[in-house]
Design brief:
The protein has 91 residues and is mainly α. It has helices spanning 35-41, 45-62, 68-90; strands at residues 29-30, 33-34. The protein has a domain at 45-91. A two-stranded antiparallel sheet has the order 1-2. A hairpin with a 2-residue loop joins β1 and β2.
């Protein structure tokens, strides 16, 4: 997936492994396949756009109902899906 600058949003391997619960949660990867890539491959383009839009709405809907640390994480997740939606629409 590409970020808003058209660059790959996949994190590059580094010498120090880092955990990113927003961009690459451990439980969303099976081998080398990211869950979002499998979802995209299983849907029409229109359905995938709807999925991304729904994810944005979900995270914006619930961020105020969480403690501050988790609410910021939900806003970042919402931004991730919004950027993905923008990338898909601009392609």
């Amino acid at each position: 997936m590409k970020n808003s600058n058209g660059e790959s949003s996949q994190t590059q391997p580094s010498s120090t492994p880092t955990h990113d619960p927003v961009l690459s949660p451990d439980h969303y990867t099976s081998g080398s396949i990211e869950c979002i890539d499998a979802i995209k491959a299983s849907m029409s383009h229109e359905a995938y756009l709807g999925f991304l839009k729904g994810q944005v709405q979900k995270y914006l809907w619930r961020y105020e109902k969480k403690d501050p640390a988790k609410s910021l994480q939900d806003l970042r997740k919402g931004r991730f899906y919004l950027e993905a939606l923008i990338n898909e629409v601009s392609e």
